[in-house]
Amino acid sequence: MGFLMKKCFNEKGQIATEYVISMGVLLAVVAVITSYSFLTYAETMKMQNLSTSLEALGNAAKYVHAAGSGNSMLTKIKIPEGVISSSILGNKLSITWKGSDFTYALDFNLSGSLPIAEGIYTMRVYANDASVAFQAI
């Protein structure tokens, strides 16, 4: 009878140990997937900020261009960490972020410059006779 009791307790202990180990492995897998999801989410939000900023600048440029020379407006943009370069050439606003180019094209000439350092900027967008210009203030 004593041998049977020992065997029963050993099997229960082994089952409990296997359960704890399998739960630990499962939690580790869930932790890795969750951390990857948060990293991907952060990168997606930075890309969304860039797209939204270029769209805001483009919309402001369309507005002041339609209103005519001498008109201006202010708009806020958010530049995330990792911007390599920015340019305004011809009719295109461009920002390069971690090897990806984000571009916004318009139907008229543009001039000025865009910031590349991380931060929130107030941009002055104003129309003159030859183009629509951008200036960080």
Secondary structure layout plus pairing:
Layout: H1 2-67, E1 72-79, E2 83-89, E3 92-97, E4 100-105, E5 110-112, E6 119-127, E7 132-136
Parallel strand pairs: 5-7
Antiparallel strand pairs: 1-6, 2-3, 3-4, 6-7
Counting H and I runs of at least 4 residues, what is the number of helices? 1
Q: Portion of residues in helices? A: 40-55%
Strand content: 25-35%
Summed over residues and divided by their number, the pLDDT gives a mean of 90
Strand order of the largest sheet: 1-6-7-5
User: N-to-C terminal Cα separation, in Å?
Assistant: 88 Å
Outline, from the CA principal axes? rod-shaped
The secondary-structure class comes to alpha+beta
Instruction: Note the main sheet.
Output: 4 strands, mixed
How many β-strand stretches?
A: 7
N-to-C series of helices and strands: HEEEEEEE
The oligomeric state is single chain
Q: Any idea what the radius of gyration is?
A: 28 Å
Question: Regions with pLDDT < 50 over 5+ consecutive residues?
Answer: none
How would you sum up this structure, described in words?
By secondary structure, the chain is α+β, with helices and mostly antiparallel strands. Helix content is 48%, strand content 32%. The protein has one helix and seven strands; from the N terminus they run H-E-E-E-E-E-E-E. It has one helix spanning 2-67, and strands at 72-79, 83-89, 92-97, 100-105, 110-112, 119-127, 132-136. The strands form two sheets. The protein has a four-stranded mixed sheet with strand order 1-6-7-5, covered by helices on one side. The chain is rod-shaped, with a radius of gyration of 28 Å.
